[in-house]
Amino acid sequence: MVEGTLRASVLASASASAFDDRRRSEASTLLSSVAARAAIALHGTPVLLLEPDRVRRQYERLRRALPFVGFHYAVKALAHDAVLAALDESGCGFDVATGEELGMLTRRGVAADRIIHTHPIKKPTEIAEALSAGVRTFVVDNDVEIDKFRDAPPDTRLLVRLAYRSPHAKSDLSSKFGVGPFEAARLVAHAVAAGVRVAGFSYHVGSQLDDPARFAAAAADTLELMGILERRLKVRFDTLDIGGGFPASYDTESAEIEDVARLLRPVLAPHAGRLRIIAEPGRVLVADAMSLVTSVVGIAERGDGRWYYVDDGLYGSYSNVLTEDVHPLVFAERDLHAGARDTADHRWATLGGPTCDSSDVIARDVLLPDLRVGDLLVSPTMGAYTTVTATRFNGRPLTPVAALDPVAATTDAAVQYAVQDAADVRRVPIV
Ligand SMILES: Cc1ncc(COP(=O)(O)O)c(C=O)c1O
């Protein structure tokens, strides 16, 4: 028994270090690319390096894993034009929560029938704007919201948001919105009486949910509820929206898209002909597609050891640490080039952010080499809920996002691309 436990923990630590090594090697390839060097030369640090090609590849993985699902990217995860362009060109739909997000898409010329609006609570003016832009699918979870659609065009389709509490998710998205099955039945009856069409149901199992079985259970429960309500209320539903929630791998390996899909497919597939099955993934499409490069701005020896202060922190791009309690890895650039990792001169250090607030601590107990002011650090998996939730606390500007062109083979092309991107960033504030 003890031997078995020991073996399991040896295997676990071997796979953790394989995961670390993979992330390190990806960061090394990125940081040594011509496009990344050009972006760092142009912007200095901090800078977020966005790889739109990785967004495209994640979308293709989702499509392969769940071919009968229509995906709508949750724009809130990373509202950047290069991401929207990559997904638009790939044929992905979009999920918006505000008029601002909708505006980014309509300015691009995205057709309204590829856009759904899933915020359960909306200003009447926002509904009117979305309707006049041609959006027809909306989410509701209460009577007042349903009544806002009494005079909407007849092809308007409402989805009733269900709640599935997920204490294991980093962000339980059913504590603020969504209803249980009895209230759902009452809302459908209310909508029928109000002359508003309920096309089906939506839910969100919780963001960064590393539990494939929970995705399958929520889908099965919703399908069962839909069957019961169709029989009891004599209505017909045609849409099931399975939300988002697919996890990203920050400091440890999480379930992959394919792991979640393996359990979801047998539940959903039998209904795929009859129902339009859609999803609203955010994080999984963009988390791995952006990395943050910072540099050391200060070093201090304190009672609890060495502190490195860097030029981005919890009130900036590392807002995900604050708001979601996720822990992105942090590598020193020097370690990326070391080949076989020699940690003889390394020590455990605390990484502080740049603001005056004592809570602005990015990570404790990070094993780092002896760093100097100006040395670069890189964090992978910084695409989701980072720059979009960053603040300007202490008067610090938002960290620029440089979209890297994978085909920019020469320095000139890469610099030109980065310069264009800098202009884009100024034109489209990412807040
Ligand atoms: C309504 C809705 N849909 C989709 C998403 C995206 O979720 P995720 O990033 O976990 O895939 C969110 C996240 O907050 C959400 O609130």
From TrEMBL:
Domain Orn/DAP/Arg decarboxylase 2 N-terminal span(s) in chain numbering: 54-287
Catalytic activity entry: L-ornithine + H(+) = putrescine + CO2
Q: Which UniProt keywords apply?
A: Decarboxylase, Lyase, Pyridoxal phosphate
Q: What cofactor does this one take?
A: pyridoxal 5'-phosphate
Similarity comment: family membership: Belongs to the Orn/Lys/Arg decarboxylase class-II family.
In terms of PROSITE patterns, this protein maps to: ODR_DC_2_1
| Protein name per UniProt | ornithine decarboxylase
UniProt EC number? 4.1.1.17
Involved pathway(s): Amine and polyamine biosynthesis; putrescine biosynthesis via L-ornithine pathway; putrescine from L-ornithine: step 1/1
Q: Give the source species.
A: Microbacterium helvum
